[in-house]
Every structure is written in C-alpha cells, then in structure tokens.
Amino acid sequence: MNQNKFNFLKNIFKEGSTNIYRWPDCATPMIEEINALKPTKVVDLGCGSNAYKGMINNLTGIDFATPEADISCTIEDLPFEDNSVDVCLALGSINFGNEELIRKQLSEAKRITKSGGYLYFRVMCEHNNELYYPWNLQKAKQSAKEFNFEFIDGPRTIYKNIWEDTREKQVGDRGRERLYWIWKV
Question: How many CB atoms lie within 10 A of CB 4?
C-alpha cells in the first residue's frame, strides 16, 4: 500500500472504530465460541478501539492507528512466535490494499496461528472503494485453497445494525453488508 493511502487510513481510524454491537450475527456467538475453546492466546488483528478486550479471554489487540491497541504494529509484521496463537481475529482488517499485501497479511496470520487454530474473518465485499480489497466468495475460497485453510463457518453474508454511525461520515458509506467466515488452520 502506498504511503498516502496508509496515512489516510491511519488518520481515519486513529480514534478507534470497533463497536461489537454493529454485527449482531457474529459478535456475541463469536465471543462465546472463542471463550469455549479456552484459548491461551487470541490476537485481534486491527483491533481498532480494542472493544473485545475483556470479553474474549487472553486477547491481545494489535493496530497501527489506535492508542487503545495493546501492541502498535501492522499485520504484515506481527511480533509473535510461529504457531503461538490459538485464534486470530481479522474483523475488517485484512481488507485494505492490493493482492500482494492481502497475501502477505494472510501469510502472517497463518504463521502465528497454531495448526488446528482458527481465523475469524469479516470483510467488505463487492464495492467500488479503491482503498478496500475486492473480497467476494470466489476470493475467499481461492485464499482458503492457497493457504490450506478449512471453512468451519461461512462464508456467509451478515449485515450491520442500522443506527446512526458518525464514523460513516469520516470513512464514507461502506454499506451494511459484509462477508463473514471462520477458517481452521
């Protein structure tokens, strides 16, 4: 991603943007599923305001743009040992940039996730915004095949709750629809 786009994204998201109640189809069930696994390490890639902290056991939030993150870094340079994480969350974070950047970020997520661990994914789909990667069902399946991930849930379409969101004025209308899935590594 070029420096101008990187800086633009950092400025947009610098105050955090995570609100779990936006995604009722996945947030609460996801929290319950992950905690039932009794994970020793969960990493939220691009945690925004780190809203899942305190809700998901043993969670570390990483983000390059928000002060609420436990660790400030990008997804393509994660400071974790290989095969050290039980669950990775990528809820709207592996969603920016070109094919090369997305592959690099997926490689990093796979590198740190234990064999048999899980990747929870939520992405924008079918849009015309140049900042976002054009995820769709085909690309999700292609990535699963390329990285040898197994679908546990989805991909399925989920919808954001309708409520006045002042963040939309900053980041533009990104629509209510997202793709959501869970991969097993």
Answer: 8
Residue 173 lies in a domain: no
Q: What is the CATH number of the domain that holds 60?
A: 3.40.50.150
Q: Considering the entire predicted model, what is its pTM?
A: 0.82
Residue 182 lies in a domain: no
- Structural domain count, the chain: 1
Per-residue pLDDT of the chain (185 residues; tens, 9 = 90+): 555 544 444 444 444 445 555 666 677 889 999 999 999 999 999 998 898 999 999 999 999 988 999 999 999 999 999 999 999 999 989 988 899 999 999 999 999 999 999 999 999 876 667 778 889 999 999 999 999 999 999 998 877 765 545 444 444 455 667 889 999 99
3-state SS, residue 153: strand
- Is residue 132 situated within a structural domain? yes
